[in-house]
Design brief:
Distance between the termini: 48 Å
Order of helices and strands: HHHHHH
Structural class: mainly alpha
Helix content: over 70%
Strand content: under 5%
Radius of gyration: 20 Å
Shape: elongated
C-alpha cells in the first residue's frame, strides 16, 4: 500500500488492539462472580447476564483502555512516519500520504525549522489528549450514574 492513510490507520489499529483486549479482559475478570450467579439465579440467559450485569460493571475499565490506546495513537510518531508518511499536502484519498500532528512536531523540532511552531504543536497535542480524557471520563461517569 505504500505511504497512505489506510496503512497508517491499520498500523495504529494493530498496535493498540492488544492494549484494548488486555484491559477489557482484566475489567471483565474483576467483575465479582456473585454478579453472574445472581443473574443466573434470576433466570437470565448467559447472554443476558453478560449484557445486563457483567458489561455494565466492566465498562469503566474497558473505556479506560480505549482512552489509553487513543492517547497512544495520537502521540505515536515512528510507526506513522514509516506507514502514513509525512506529506505536506492535504490527502486526496485513503491511499494518499499524510502527516499527523506528532510527526509535524517531530519534523519541526528535529530540523529546527521553527521552534515556536513546534512548541505550539506540542501544546495543541497535550490539550487535545487532555480534552479527550476529560470528555471520555465525563461520558463514562454520566453512563455509570444513569445505570444506578
Amino acid at each position: 500500500m505504500g505511504w497512505s492513510i489506510l496503512s497508517g490507520g491499520l498500523t495504529m489499529a494493530i498496535m493498540i488492539l492488544p492494549t484494548i483486549i488486555r484491559t477489557s479482559e482484566e475489567s471483565i475478570r474483576t467483575v465479582p462472580q456473585l454478579y453472574r450467579e445472581v443473574g443466573f439465579s434470576l433466570g437470565l440467559t448467559k447472554l443476558q447476564t453478560i449484557t445486563r450485569t457483567v458489561l455494565p460493571s466492566a465498562l469503566p475499565g474497558i473505556v479506560n483502555g480505549v482512552i489509553l490506546s487513543i492517547g497512544r495513537c495520537v502521540a505515536e510518531t515512528a510507526a506513522v512516519i514509516l506507514t502514513a508518511g509525512s506529506a505536506l499536502r492535504m490527502p486526496e484519498s485513503l491511499f494518499s500520504p499524510t502527516r499527523t500532528m506528532a510527526v509535524h512536531f517531530y519534523i519541526l523540532a528535529r530540523e529546527g525549522i521553527s521552534m515556536d511552531n513546534a512548541y505550539g504543536t506540542a501544546a495543541l497535542l497535550i490539550i487535545l489528549i487532555l480534552l479527550l480524557n476529560v470528555g471520555f471520563n465525563m461520558l463514562v461517569n454520566r453512563f455509570i450514574a444513569k445505570g444506578r
